[in-house]
Design a protein that fits this description.
single chain, alpha/beta, Rossmann fold, pyruvate-formate lyase- activating enzyme, OB fold (Dihydrolipoamide Acetyltransferase, E2P), six-stranded parallel sheet, 14 helices, about 25% strand, binds 5'-deoxyadenosine, binds iron/sulfur cluster
Length: about 450
């Protein structure tokens, strides 16, 4: 086996894990290749909703079919991520083409597991959640990109009634501050100007080596790493917001004016049934505190419609919280029953047609808010971090401080530049910028 390809599904934490898996395989001598040409395919899966989990099986079917059609040997298939953890060896029974199943806390062992597979071992399953963290055993980061992810916390102890994460990712665990700073330093030295700290409950972070160091301490420490010009984090839980975290938005210059704070529902009755451990009032008070610290904050959320027992009146409260907060953007999903979670057992499940209709109404409301948020920025100037090329050859796409995608037309730009633009037009999902000046030289 000489070449590999990693395909990522699901959340940003999976994107990060996929990068680390790729780096671990490359450090072991394998060479990255296009998906169709790789000897090894790693599918890093998501289990959050049924549709996401089913993607694994359609993907394996597609890979097997492609190999059959072209008369080539099927690549070795390794399934990693949350479906691996949730379904284990069951995956091989359902999809015989899968060779290895490796959970999210065990993927640092992939090189040795692949050697065992090459040595003739069949149906390898490793779902261990070892005491010694994978982060201590993975090779140092080599990724070079203007904007990078850095996982600082994993797992969840909140047990929302709908969610599989506590089962797939385990209980809340934080990485030590020293390891995070070492990784941030390497990433910044490699040219990263923006770091997004990741965790399923990122703001529950506490230094395992020093419990008095909380998420506010972490934000300050990462912002102090030379080269880190922009700092973000996701996903936060309302219950874990501290005063230090709120103040960070007022006091740390690198802190971007952006906050992803999922509320899931606007109805107190549904929030209680979801076991969210906060009500609408508590959430709105948090929003007011963050806005007092940083008045131009862009706030985004996740929503679930059609949670068991959700009435039309409950749903209307969800619509009203969208307007009350004035979200800059939001993700919204139909409730998907997940085996093993309490809500899946409830007998007041909502019909598919009602879920679909509510999702559409919610998305219209979110889109209207996003559009008015983006339009309110037209005429302003801001710095954008150039990340990649746009559709046209002279187009570039960068991110505003509020995490909006901004399209600029200027052939001379390069990824990693931070440029000052005037925002001249807005749609619900992106803005158009016109170059004003280049504020910083190329550092990447
Ligand atoms: N059904 C639908 N959406 C879900 N989410 C989590 N679990 C489910 C589920 N069972 C959504 C939540 C969460 C986001 C990552 O996915 O909104 O914040
Ligand atoms: Fe999906 Fe959750 Fe796993 Fe991320 S942590 S991949 S959202 S199930």
């Amino acid at each position: 086996m000489r070449t590999f390809s990693v395909k990522s599904f699901g959340c940003q934490m999976n994107v990060y894990d996929s990068e680390r898996i790729a780096e671990a395989l490359a450090a072991d001598g394998l060479i990255a290749a296009e998906e169709g040409e790789a000897d090894l395919l790693v599918l890093n899966t998501c289990h959050i909703r049924e549709k996401a989990a089913e993607k694994l099986y359609s993907e394996v079917g597609r890979i097997s079919k492609r190999a059959r059609k072209s008369g080539t040997e099927k690549p070795v298939i390794a399934v990693t991520g949350c479906v691996a953890q949730a379904e284990g060896g069951e995956i091989m029974r359902r999809a015989g083409a899968v060779d290895l199943v490796v959970g999210p806390q065990a993927y640092h062992r992939l090189p040795e597991l692949l050697r065992a597979h090459a040595g003739g071992q069949k149906d390898i399953v490793d779902l261990d959640m070892p005491a010694r963290s994978k982060f201590d055993q993975l090779p140092a980061r080599v990724r070079r990109a203007p904007s990078v992810f850095l996982t600082v916390q994993e797992g969840c102890d909140k047990f929302c009634a709908f969610c599989v994460v506590p089962y797939t990712r385990g209980s809340e665990a934080s990485r030590p501050l020293s390891g995070i700073i070492a990784e941030a330093t390497i990433l910044a030295q490699g040219g990263a100007r923006e770091i997004t700290l990741l965790g399923q409950n990122v703001n529950a972070w506490r230094d395992p080596a020093n419990h008095s160091a909380d998420f506010g301490t972490l934000l300050r420490a990462v912002a102090a790493v030379p080269g880190v010009e922009r700092l973000r984090y996701t996903t936060s839980h309302p219950r874990d917001v501290s005063e230090a975290m709120v103040r960070a938005h007022a006091e740390i210059p690198q802190m971007m004016p952006y906050l992803h704070l999922p509320v899931q529902s606007g109805s107190d009755r549904i929030l209680a049934a979801m076991n969210r451990k906060h009500d609408r009032r508590f959430y709105m008070d948090l929003i007011a505190r963050f806005r007092a610290a940083r008045p131009d904050l862009a706030i985004t959320s996740d929503f679930i419609v059609g949670f068991p027992g959700e009435t039309e009146a409950d749903f209307e409260e969800t619509l009203s919280i969208v307007d009350a907060v004035g979200y800059a953007q939001a993700f919204s999903f139909k409730y998907s029953p997940r085996v093993g979670t309490p809500a899946a057992e409830q007998d007041d499940q909502i019909g598919e047609d009602v879920k679909a209709e509510r999702l559409q109404r919610l998305q219209e409301r979110i889109l209207a808010n996003a559009l008015s948020f983006n339009r309110s920025m037209v005429g302003q100037r801001c710095d954008i971090l150039i990340e990649r090329r746009g559709r046209r050859p002279d187009q570039w796409i960068g991110k505003s401080p509020w995490l909006q995608s901004v399209v600029v037309t200027d052939a001379a730009l390069e990824p990693g530049q931070i440029v000052n633009v005037e925002l001249v037009a807005a749609g619900p999902n992106s803005l158009e910028g016109r170059m004003v000046t280049m504020t910083t030289a190329v550092a990447w």
